[in-house]
Every structure is written in C-alpha cells, then in structure tokens.
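<given_protein>
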Amino acid sequence: MNKDQVVGNWEQVKGTVRKQWGKLTDDQVDQIKGDRQKLAGQIQESYGIAKEEAQKQIDQWEESCRHNAR
C-alpha cells in the first residue's frame, strides 16, 4: 500500500490502524486522514516513543498491509 492508496482509502484503513495502535483514539485516527506524518506524531505522543521508532513501526505496518493484499 503506498501513500496515495492510504490517503484515498483512509476510511477502510482506519480499522487496521486502530488494531495496530490500540492506544490511538477514534478522534486521533480521524484527524490523521491518511497523513503519514500525522500518524507518526500521534503514535509518538500516545506511546511515548521517538519519531524514528514511530516511522519504523509505520514502515513495518505498511509492508504487512502489502503482503496481506496479495
């Protein structure tokens, strides 16, 4: 799944985001609207982790989404 697919399918993707990062609230997920930087920021804030770690988690999540889509 690439950036354009995430933004364009945000309503469908929100569920997988909530499953992956359960500490994120519905309001936080709604505000992200497919923006990778906003997602990283919300993960950082909710989990108290560094920006690099949040981005690494997003990379891994995107990769798993690609594999599941096949």
